[in-house]
Each structure stands twice: as C-alpha cells, then as structure tokens.
Amino acid sequence: MSIDIRKESAKQGTVEQRIVYESGNEMAAYAAHQINYHIMGYFPISPSTEVAQFLDLMKANGQHDIVLIPADGEHGSAGVCYGASTAGGRVFNATSANGYLYMLEQMPVQSGTRFPMVMNLVCRSVSGPLDIHGDHSDLYFALNTGWPIVLCRDPQAVYDMNIIALKLAEDPEVRLPVLVASDGYFTSHQKRRVMTFTHREDVQRFVGESPPEGFAHVLDRNNPITVGPYMNEPDYINNCYQQSQAMYRAEAVFDRIQQEYAELTGREYPILELYRMDDAEVAVFLLNSSAEIIKDVVDQLRAQGVKAGAISPNIIRPFPAKAIAEALKSVKAVTVGDRADSYGGHGGNMVMEVRAALQQYGNATTMVISRIYGLGGKDFYAEDGLKMFEFAIDAVHAGKVEKPYDYHGITAGNPAKAPKRVLEPMDYESLKTGLITVTHDEATGKVNVKVPPLRQLTKKPKRIAPGHGACPGCGIFSGLELFFKGIEGDIVALFHTGCAMVVTTGYPYSAHKATYIHNLFQNGAATLSGVVEMFHERKRRGELDDLGLKDDFTFVMITGDGGMDIGMGPAIGAALRNHRMIILEYDNEGYMNTGAQLSYSTPMGHRTSTSNVGKHQGGKVFHHKDTAQIMAATNIPYVFTGSEASPIDLVRKGAKAQWYAQNVGMVYGKILITCPLNWLSEDKDGADIIDFAVNTCFFPLYEVERGVTTITYNPEEKGKRVPVGDWLKMMGKTKHLSKPEYAETLREFEHEIERRWNMLKAKHENPYL
C-alpha cells in the first residue's frame, strides 16, 4: 500500500494530523494498521478485497503485526474472527454482498455472546443475478444481527469510523461487534483528501489498552469459562434482553465517543447529519455516499426559494428513531431513498423505520414517500436528487402522496429490442463424431479410449463461442475446449463464479452454445447434483420423451479461481453421493477474478496480492492444496489431471470422464492453465510455462481409475525433467525465489514437489496405495 502523504500537516483539533489522498478501502486498512489488530480472518470478494490486499502489502514491509489468516470462504473467515475474539484480542475483517450472506449465521453468534470486533461491510448488490456493484442489499441483511452499524459517506469517514468503531465495540456499556458500512466502488475505490493521525501512538491511546480489562476470555487459565452454552428459557430471553439493552446504549456511547474524537481531530459525526433542516418543509433521507450529492441539490432548491433539507444518519443500529422524528417534526413531506428493496414490504428497510419512528413519537402529519434507487451500482446524480425532492414537493402541493412506494431510475422495456437467439443449438450429429471410441474392459474394470489425431477433431464444434472477454493469453478456454473435444453429444454445464463465468455471460449476451447454469462460488456441486437427479427422475417418469434426447446429457461443473476452496465441502458431498457428473477445475493458482489473491492452490513462495513479497515476507507461506488427491480420497470412480501440454492425453481423459459420468458416477478433473496477467508472464509463453510445470513434476499428469493410480506421463522416463527454478524464472510472480534471501523458501517448495512426486510414483507402482 502506498499512501500519498502531503508534507504539510493539518492543525485541526488537538492531535497532530497529516493529509493523504486515498480510497475508502485504503483508509480502512490504514486505520487497521495504526490500531495494529491481533488477527484478521478474511476471504476475498469484490469490492472489499483490497482491504486485505493493502494490509498484506504493509505486512510484507513490516508496517504492522496483524496476523492475516486467509480462510476457505467467508463463513470460515467469520469463524476465524469469532474464535480469535473469544481469546481476548482485537479482531478485524472486511467483506461484501454474498460473502456477507455466506457468513450471516455467524453474525448473531458473535453478538449474542458479546465478543467485540470490527468488520467493514463494503456494500454491494446481493445476487442474483450476479452484480458486483454497490447498493445496500447486503447492509439490510445486517439489520437484525445484533451488531451496531455505523455508516461512512466518504473515505474520510471510513478512516474515522474504523477508529471510533473499535472503541464503541469495546466500551463496557456496549461490548458488541460493530459493522462499519461504506458504499462499494463509490467510496471504496474513490480517492479523496483524508486527514489521518500522524502518529499511530495517538490512535492507540484513543482506542485504549488491549485487551480491555474486566472481561472474560478463553485464555485465562485461572478463570475457565464456557462460551456459547445451550440455553433454555427463561435464560435465553434474558440474554437477548441484555443484548438489546446494550444495543440501545450504543447510541449514547457512540455520541460520547464521537465527541471525544471531535476534540482530538476537529471532525464530528453526530447521530444525524442534518443539512439545512432548521426550517425545512421538504426533505430527502439517504444513506452514505448519496447523502453528499443531495447537499448540492438542497443548495440549488434553496436558491429557488424552496425550503429543502437533507437527513442522513451516521448510525442505523441502533436506529435513531427519536432524533429522526424530531428532525422531521416541521417537515411537510420527506422522500426516503432506499438503495435496496424489502420485497413485498412496500418499501425498503429505511422507509419502514422512518415511518415507524414518526408514528412512535406522535408525528402524524409528515408525509413519507418511498423510492428504491441506485440498485446494482446505478449512479446517483444531482438530477436524481432533484427528482427525489420533486416527489416530496408534489405531495405537498397535492396534499397527499399519489404513489407512496415506487422505483426510481428504471428503464421501460421495448419488446422490439428483446434479446434474440444469435447462435442456433449445436447440431447433435456434429457433436457425435464417432471418431473417439470408449470401451469398458470387463476383466480389468478399466476403460479403454482410442483418440484419433487432433487434426481430425478440429471440425468438432466448439462449446464456447468466440467473443468472450478473457484477457489475452488466458488459458481457460483453450484448456476447456481441449477437454470438451473428448466429450461426445450434448452437455449441460454449470459454472461457478469466476473468470470463466464473468467473461462469457455479460447480459444480454452469452458465449455458451450449450445450456449453461451459474451458481455462486461455493455451491455449484450441490446445484448440479440437483439438476442431474432431476434429469434422471424426469426421464424415468417419461416426462422428457418429447424432447428428442438421443443420449443422456453429460453434466459438467466448471470451477476455478479458488472455487475448490470455498466450494470444497459441497464438492466432497456430491462425490460421496456419487452423482453421475463431472467436476472440472481449471487451476490458475489464485482468485484471479477478484484481483489475484492467494488461493489454497497457490504454491508456496508465489506472489499474489495477498501474499506479497517484501523484506518481511516472501510470497505465500504455506503449501498448495492437492485437490486431485483430496477428491481421490472420496473413492469416486475416476479422477484425473491434465494440461494443454499433453493434448491427446487430455482429450482421452475427457472421453473417459464422460463414460464414467454417464455409467458409474462422479468424476473429478484438474487442468493447469495460464493466467499471464497475474502470473506476470508473456502471453505467448503460456504453453511453455505449462509444459515446464508438468516437466518439473510440480503438476504431474495421472489418473486414479477405480482407486488405482496410473501416471500417464513421466518426465523422468522421457528424459525431460527440468529443475523447478527454470520454471519459476518464466513468471514475474516467482522470479524473487531465485534471490539468496528466499533460498530457504525455494528449498522447501522443491522438497515438497519431490515428496509428492515420490508418493505418486509409489501409488503408481502399488494398486493398494
């Protein structure tokens, strides 16, 4: 992380400060590094991913002592954070959207047992369909989790609120985990002028000693405790009551803390941000970044003689109902803009709570208009703000609200422009070439495959059309198409979230010629399992007889970009149930679709955006996961590895995979593919890099058929084995390993490659291993 620090110091408040120009994500990380948390459990998801990236870069340079723990998914990251918080230290996290929903069941556990931490929610649309831009649909799921929620309208607020939030979380009157919410991309990636503490000691003095005294934790051997016991009534309701009381106390505590912060810094964060509300007759209520834009609209309307004002809370849990009712007591009409809908509730969550506040405190005269706006990252401009005011002005003139609830900013559809099919369904006969023969040997139990020369398969149509948006040199689609050359007939493909999914399905277009399904990172295997079983059951019942099926579909799940980390559990579940389907993993050694963070398949010592190289760190610090061996341990009938470097081998394995998937059960395959953008390599060198990876024995080619391992290409027998260092020099992400200071990491990586290769050779020689 490179903070642009201006030489001049600011003289606001009583503490020395300095000016930086950075984004919201950078300021969340900067505040965290000044606090010097003990633990951050994390998993990358856009747009919050950068927070961990910036902290890892600072860690590599020795700027903080935070232990960064890369989890297998957001649910796991929440578990890491909860466990760390029970042990008495300070804990930090950041997430977004579906990642937050994946960890959602952990949120009430943390608040219900009263262990403080701070988590940044960089707000983003919740799927589906998939959209990675900013709105508040994830934030609204947080409202009932028992976490106080503070809001950040700009990068300055992100920095300040991250400091305030920790002090709020650890206050004896509160003792709850706190959520810091900012707008994805609008705030998280926008660079602005920010005032920061010059000295981290001043930050640490403000937040206080760690851990705070007087609260139990699990590392006190003289006071053993039970965390999260089973609880019956009336104890459970009493526990919830105490938590509720703490939540309501958080409003006054927050106000006290922000006043203390204002004395130090000169920056105030009142419960409600009120703009020209003293005599306002019409108002707009908005959260976060939009609340800054609306101020300009207020000024424009005031210049025209309209008594306009704006309201935006800095904290929404607890909801400042009394303060809002007081602010609106003289307002004739207010438009409440929600950047998410509560489907079926006649408005978003904020408008419901504003209406409830007015009723609770006896305001029956202020008219309330609900408008849903800005979903999926749709920009909010001054003209949108003007329209929000017009809804309120019209209500005042009419003496009533004509349309209490509606969406603002939608586009009417045009039937004449409805998407039309561009590619006709692939001809079955062209897919069923007959050039590949697959026979089952009853005596050995093995499947034998004969594959013609590749040139004879070039006429076979591609499953994915040209025109996708992959980076130059990306190996995903050449690898997938080579595998698909071995598949005869129709397929149904499911793609996990990842590069292959994102670059082929930008609505209203699709590069997929065959039927395609998408589900989230973690749950593709379970989803395709349901498709497979529904197909066979509907076929058994005769419901598909009229569809002209000549053969069964081949069901293929494509995963990559770390999908076999977060999706490992459902994949193993599908394997143990032995559904007749194929899971094919393209391994590009990282979470490339979110910005090249480390995955568990990233090899030791390799550089990623969350395993940086610096004087205190030399790339990833632990070894890569061997998913092929993990899946082989589930005893599914067929497991294989493949690469473009051995095309006939990969086509043959594709054909064998299809036979097993249609006749026996689950198949798992793993192909190594290049990612020049994030491997920092030349586009043209992809095939050579993969070839070297195979010939170093880092990525051996083999298959496990009915439990028996066979190495299908042995570089030692061919006289082609090359040193690991020769492969690593071909990629910018690993060139540092040739330097003397990283020699020990290189030795350990080489040793692990040799150990795994020797184990594989032993399995090849002994069918019982």
UniProtKB/TrEMBL annotation:
This protein's UniProt keywords: 4Fe-4S, Electron transport, Iron, Iron-sulfur, Metal-binding, Oxidoreductase, Transport
CDD domains according to UniProt: TPP_PYR_PFOR_IOR-alpha_like
Domain Thiamine pyrophosphate enzyme TPP-binding, first and last residues per copy: 552-641
Highest rank taxon of the organism: Bacteria
Stored Gene3D superfamilies: 3.40.50.920, 3.40.50.970
InterPro entries linked: PFOR_II, Pyruvate:ferred/Flavod_OxRd, Pyrv_Fd/Flavodoxin_OxRdtase_N, THDP-binding, TPP_enzyme_TPP-bd, Transketo_C/PFOR_II
Domain Pyruvate:ferredoxin oxidoreductase core, chain residue ranges per copy: 280-384
Domain Pyruvate flavodoxin/ferredoxin oxidoreductase pyrimidine binding as annotated: residue spans: 31-257
Pfam assignment, any one: TPP_enzyme_C
SUPFAM superfamilies on file: Thiamin diphosphate-binding fold (THDP-binding) (SSF52518), TK C-terminal domain-like (SSF52922)
Family note: Belongs to the pyruvate:ferredoxin/flavodoxin oxidoreductase family.
PANTHER family: PYRUVATE-FLAVODOXIN OXIDOREDUCTASE-RELATED
Protein name, as recorded: Thiamine pyrophosphate-dependent enzyme
